[in-house]
Write a structure and sequence with these properties.
Structural class: mainly beta
Strand order of the largest sheet: 1-12-8-7-6-5-13-3-19-18
Distance between the termini: 39 Å
CATH class of the domain at 3-19 and 54-168 and 177-219: Mainly Beta
CATH topology of the domain at 3-19 and 54-168 and 177-219: Jelly Rolls
Helix content: under 10%
Order of helices and strands: EEEEEEEEEEEEEEEEHEEEE
Largest sheet: 10 strands, antiparallel
Amino acid sequence: MTHSTISLGVGLGGGKSATSSGRLPSGGGPFANTLSGSFDGTDDNVDCGVLSAYQGASNMSMSFWFKPDSSGHGPSMGSRTGSTNQWGFLRAGSTNYIQIVTGGTGKYSSFTAPSDTNWHHYVLTFQSNTYALYIDGSAVSMTLLNIGLGSVPTLHSQNVSFHLGRNATFYSDGLMDEVALWTATLDQANVTAIYNSGVPASLSSDSGDYDQSSSLTHWWRVGDDSADTSSGGGAAASGNVIDNVENVANSGTNDGTGSGATYSSITP
């Protein structure tokens, strides 16, 4: 196993505050964000199916908000078939990881999650062997370790689902909200704008420093789209078991199906 240390920025902290030019709009009015998803860390998840847009993709960015039940715990979420084909986040034992591996070769890194149980914004970007992790708008330094040869020009192309709150046998313990994916590599300006000083905002149109709405392929609002439902077919409501979670970026494609997870009224 070989490794290389890369410094991706200033490290963990409160995150950079967006400038007035970097703040995102709320569609002309208040941005409604009244629900999130609650995951028990045991078996709760939302199955979003196979993401064909990312099979063999050379660019990917993932953004979401996470509130852990325990201090220092990171999320688990992604697409994984054992250790040979995987991408996303996971917490194993007492360690938080990001990993991108295709055909048994790739890289992974541990990282330190914030030492509290507050909401935090995460972004993972990938562009043919280049990785970056941001928490609360700030880039995080990581030591990347090789799996196999270490080279990973594309994401895997296996027919395996992408899950919210789950990465294979690893599960998130906490709340998750506003999960989004782009077929582009978000830069620091976009990340800062999406973080928006700690307030989620619309991703559906460009504004200020955010200029990647055309690359947005998936956006699961987890309770705040009119097509999101509770188990049994009723409207999404706090405390109800999650049924459908709409992909508002491309309705009808990779809508999520809940398994055990519930809606919560606690939001970022």
